[in-house]
Design a protein that fits this description.
Blueprint (H helix, E strand, L loop, with lengths): L5 H6 L5 H8 L3 H18 L3 E11 L25 H13 L4 E6 L5 H17 L5 E5 L5 H9 L4 E3 L7 H7 L8 H13 L3 E4 L2 E2 L6 H14 L3 E3 L1 E2 L18 H18 L4 E3 L2 H6 L3 H7 L4 E2 L6 H4 L15 H14 L3 E2 L8 H6 L1
Parallel strand pairs: 1-2, 1-10, 1-11, 2-3, 3-4, 4-5, 5-7, 6-8, 7-9
Helix pairs in contact: 2-9, 3-10, 4-5
This protein binds 5'-deoxyadenosine, iron/sulfur cluster and FE2/S2 (inorganic) cluster (FES).
The site of FE2/S2 (inorganic) cluster has 8 residues, from helix 14.
Length: about 350
């Protein structure tokens, strides 16, 4: 451990793993200094502008069985739905009218040819509806090179695939040990999205059972080494109808998971100054002001939910997910206020591409 002061540490441009651990464990005044440095870095490198990405939770059907997730295949309770084409296009038109900077289409993981072609068709239609003016992001799990290329050709520009944890050992404790849930396979898809020219997003969960603070430091190093463009990180939140629920008594208290997530965001902002970092919904599940706090800690992207209200209760990845009873308009108004409370302005009508992606090119 070096004996430089915390202030000196924050001036460094490259952190070692030990230094990241020191930042993650900071308390009191040091913790405040960390958040102040992150806020300053955000202001300087990406500005106090927050981009809205309209989130469409297209379908909760999933072929996978992740041990933490409320819509895993073997959970019989969620009513399974897929939005109709018109429901998707209505959500798209709403986002376009409201001048959101982009759209995220998310769903469980399905690999059938029918599903792949359906997404392709929708992408082409969305491009028409929005005069090619909206950036489209996909978050549809692990897919083949051919599929990812097909979707890219149809107009998708960004791809989100969380690695969930950068530790293969921990990954194997959170997923069934089969080909469908293979860490290396997932990493390869992430690499593929990069090769195909997508802006690439990833992220991890924080406060998982068996997860150590070293794992979290490694996660940050992973995101830096991968040179990621966009990040979404959130606290792990238990769900009673999942296998990991049995470990609920061994977890950190939710408030500590929340605090660690804020620190992860702040440290990452300092490490990777010009990337896009999301203020995730899971933050608000733990703390009513969670998303504002994440913006203050360095996040610059927020995802207002566009999913029709009638479906929302069936897309419960974790318990206490907010915005279950709201419609798109309510989330928009609510988040507009939250962004202002955090001292930021909304980048309406701007794509808000990852500056990191542009700078790499
Ligand atoms: N708690 C927090 N995040 C979760 N996710 C899935 N289940 C949970 C949970 N119980 C996250 C995963 C996934 C994303 C869509 O939602 O990181 O990649
Ligand atoms: Fe399916 Fe994603 Fe949930 Fe895993 S985390 S079960 S892939 S929706
Ligand atoms: Fe959905 Fe506040 S963000 S109601």
């Amino acid at each position: 451990m070096s004996n430089i002061s915390f202030k000196e540490l924050l001036q460094k441009i490259f952190f070692s793993k030990e230094e990241i651990l020191r930042l993650l464990e900071s308390q009191g005044d040091d913790r405040q200094l960390l958040f102040a440095k992150a806020a300053e870095t955000k202001k300087e490198f990406v500005g106090n502008i927050v981009y809205f990405r309209g989130l469409i939770e297209y379908s909760n059907r999933c072929s996978k069985n992740c041990y933490y997730c409320g819509i895993r295949r073997e959970n019989p309770f969620p009513h399974r739905y897929t939005m109709t084409d018109n429901e998707v296009y209505d959500a798209v038109k709403y986002a376009y009218k409201e001048r959101y900077s982009s759209l995220v289409i998310q769903s469980g993981e399905i690999n059938s040819q029918k599903y792949i072609n359906q997404i392709t068709k929708m992408l082409k239609e969305i491009r028409e509806i929005t005069n090619k003016e909206m950036g489209i992001t996909l978050s549809l799990g692990e897919q083949s090179e051919e599929t990812l290329q097909q979707w890219k050709d149809a107009g998708a520009r960004r791809y989100l695939l969380r690695i969930e944890t950068s530790s293969p050992e921990l990954y194997s404790k959170l997923h069934p040990n089969d080909k469908l849930h293979d860490y290396e396979g997932r990493l390869n898809v992430l690499r593929l999205t990069r090769q195909l020219g997508y802006q690439v997003g990833s992220g991890v969960m924080i406060g998982l059972p068996f997860q150590t603070i070293e794992n979290l430091a490694d996660d940050l190093i992973f995101l830096r080494d991968f040179d990621i463009d966009m990040v979404g990180m959130g606290p792990y939140i238990e769900h009673s109808e999942t296998p990991l629920f049995q470990y609920r008594d061994s977890l950190l208290p939710q408030t500590e998971r929340f605090d660690l997530t804020l620190k992860m965001i702040a440290i990452l902002r300092i490490m990777m100054k010009d990337i896009n970092i999301a203020s995730t919904t899971a933050m608000q599940a733990i703390d009513k002001m969670g998303r504002e706090k994440a913006l203050k800690a360095g996040a610059n992207v927020i995802m207002p939910n566009l999913t029709p209200q009638k479906y929302r209760k069936n897309y419960m990845l974790y318990e206490d997910k907010p915005c279950i009873d709201e419609e798109a308009d309510q989330c928009k108004n609510c988040l507009s206020i939250r962004v202002r409370l955090a001292g930021d302005t909304i980048g309406f009508g701007e794509w808000g591409d990852s500056k990191h992606f542009a700078n790499r090119k």
